[in-house]
Amino acid sequence: MNYESKIASELGVRPQQVQATVELLDGGATVPFISRYRKEATGTLDEVQVATIRDRIEQLRELDKRREAVLKSIEEQGKLTPELKKAVVGAETMAKLEDIYLPYKPKRRTKATIAREKGLEPLAERIFTQDSIDLENEAQKFISEDKEVNTIEEALQGARDIISEWINENAVVREKMRKLFLEEGTFTSRVIPGKEAEAIKYKDYFDWSEPIKSAPSHRVLAMRRGEKELFLMLDSCPEEGSALTLIEREILVNASNASVDQVKLAIKDCYKRLLKPSMETEIRLLTKKKADEEAIKVFAENLRQLLLGAPLGEKSVMAIDPGFRTGCKLVSLGPQGQLLHYEAIFPHEPQRQSAAAGMTVKGLVEKFSIQAIAIGNGTAGRETETFVKSLGLPKAVVVTMVNESGASIYSASEVARNEFPDLDLTVRGAVSIGRRLMDPLAELVKIDPKSIGVGQYQHDVDQNALKNALDDTVMSAVNGVGVEVNTASKELLTYVSGLGPVLAQNIVEYRTENGPFTSRTQLKKVPRLGEKAFEQAAGFLRIRNAKHPLDRSAVHPERYELVEKMAQDLKASVQDLMSSEELRAQIVLKNYVSETVGLPTLQDILDELAKPGRDPRETFEVFQFQEGVNSMADLKIGMKLPGVVTNITAFGAFVDIGVHQDGLVHLSHLADRFVKDPKEVVTVAQKVQVTVMEVDIPRKRIGLSMKSDPFAERGKTMAKPQAKKSTQEEVEGDLASKLAMLKGRFGK
């Protein structure tokens, strides 16, 4: 079936754009390639639109496959009429198709099946007409010892079972009931009696109710998780009276007699026994899918922002994976991330070999000309930062904290084992921390995106959908930045358009055996890297020291001849064009428009000539947490602190303020104005200023605000915290706690 017009209407684009995109996708083109190098064909559709077309056409093709199976099944039963075929062919959703198919779908033995076996279907048909009949007399005719129908009531019950099934299989009833559940249904959660203590993290949902149509994804997933863990009971239904009224309007005739009364009983039975469970399951699947989509969307956007974090660049880096009892694992890395040295230092309790540790750090900084020190933000992170800063290192040496989420996953991975087979897990983790500072994208692609720590409910959502979305995000980020083919890891190359793990490995092996690539065309010598893969990948691969200047840029090799023509027309070289703004200003783009090349591509080429191989990521800036604030115990209401956004959700943003527990800035506290979507205000890894609003140490919860005057709305009952004179008791208590801390740190 031709779906181009349908998809075009849904996206608000022209059918020709959809058709061209589908043809390119079917031909093996990737989303990044299509959106970057086939703008004329698609009418400049962006990555999001191309990916949406890809996903929608797959969905509609799946619907077609199911439609064919349904038609075949009904035809084999000898029940396919022209009217039924038209209805099946016209079904635009999977739900509508399944409603039509339900009466013909092979089913297990039901109450209605048993009633039919007892010969009660004619009685059901007679009652379902809802004519005025002598009910007892009609039912009497079906009493039979052979068929185990011994009483009038047994006959009527069997007839009602059949009628219940008919109502349940009525496509119109199901469609309207589905709409009722969605529009008037309510999520209601209750704590399972006796589990109040165990389920304390779900306290908000112990007695909770909200409309299905407006329930946000994070609450839907939270309630479902609570139910799955057997802490909550969850219902998702409309008022029973509304549901019964809806069915009665569809089924009952305008009459009052014994047959109508029997049908009413069948309606109640149908709803409670068949329709309600069926609809509740369906609606819960629908709302779960919607919640999954929203959660995955947030996760993917967070991941994108993290991957595109500002790189420090090619610098000599010392990285420290901090710890108390087991010490701090320290590594020195060269400008390309190569491991030069590793050892452990013990600046903290219980060993407290501060002097020796300090000498080691200073000696290595000098020996390897260290330009930056990356410290993991886990246990002992802030203490290690304080220690390093106390050493009096040269001011030019940058000391900064690095988010180490997922570093332990990398350390134990096959990737890390292959790279450092003889090293301890903790040393590998330190290497990862250092490389993250140098180039977050190149290092984070080695870790399963789910382990990076920027999502929520990632284990509750559809895992296939999550993987596909995150893979798309990583691929988009990698190709958006571009990859230096001579230094990229296999993992980074894997995400380049058109490559994948096999070709990525082949590229690494080829450059190991033959030395660095000197041109893009040399890539064609890599085993199994054919013309199609080259077409898809070449524009995203960079060769820094290539002979041809365009090999260092994002200009695709298929357009080299065009650029050379531009240079020729100006009696200059390609390198001259790239170096001279004055020359580029003389290029008249419309003179180079052809059947395959339009102004969008020409403008991209001109932009690339101006800044060949430019990195779209922001410039690295050093960030410092507030000194002296290292744990939740150091926090006070009203404190203003610097922080880094670590995660964004539908209800707000989590911010690392350097106390080993992220704080939440609720949606209502992200700005002085009304904020509907947190992404309007914050991005992952953004540096922000926050005010401490709440500190709950037992529950490990910190409430933060980004408002300029967060306490104003609390009014007189909760004014800003004011400084006050300490009582003698408070002073003594303060001194006692400080003394205990000092004893713990330095001993008696």
Structural write-up:
The protein is of the alpha/beta class and 748 residues long. It has 5 domains: 4-80, Arc Repressor Mutant, subunit A (Orthogonal Bundle), CATH 1.10.10; 111-300, Tex N-terminal region-like, CATH 1.10.3500; 317-438, 2-Layer Sandwich (Nucleotidyltransferase, domain 5); 555-612; 632-736, OB fold (Dihydrolipoamide Acetyltransferase, E2P), CATH 2.40.50. 47% of the residues lie in helices and 11% in strands. The protein contains 30 helices and 15 strands. The strands form 4 sheets. It has a 5-stranded mixed β-sheet, sandwiched between helices. It has a 5-stranded mixed beta barrel with strand order 11-12-13-15-14. Strand 12 and strand 13 (663-666) form a beta hairpin. The longest helix is centred in the middle third of the chain and has 50 residues, at 258-307. Mean pLDDT is 91; it is low at 716-748.
